Amino acid sequence: MEIADLVAAESVIARLRVRGKKQALQELARRAAAHSGVEAGLIYARMLEREKEDRAAARMGVAVLHAKVPGVGRPYGIFARLERAIPFAAIDEEPVDLLFLLLSPETAGEEHLRALARVSRLLRDRTVCEKLRGTDNAEALYVLLAGAPAVTGA
What are phi and psi for residue 76, nearest 5 degrees? Predict the structure, then answer.
């Protein structure tokens, strides 16, 4: 699975301005709702449920959020580069400035796990993250994400 299968160019946010974690999650839910047709409140609630279980998903300035949501037809992602890093209760206690939200259908099993593994591998790569941090242009961010070579087994 490629990142381009998950993220559309219009699902990349180059300079998200938020004051904190709650506002960041709400904004991701709002934007995901606009693209998926699923109600933002439901997306937000599912994100919170999952986030409580998986604090380790945030580290090295990157948070990978994921949830299975009714009404989502296929795995779908939104990427945001924050204007400034925010506290995020990360396992390493570092503030977060790169966010990726992966939404999948409630019935997705292995497909969700494969998509999550692909995103996680990409965003654990320090070189990729530095390149993402180096531009605030949405098109350039999309090219960096979508053009990333697949990792064997992803």
Answer: -145, 140
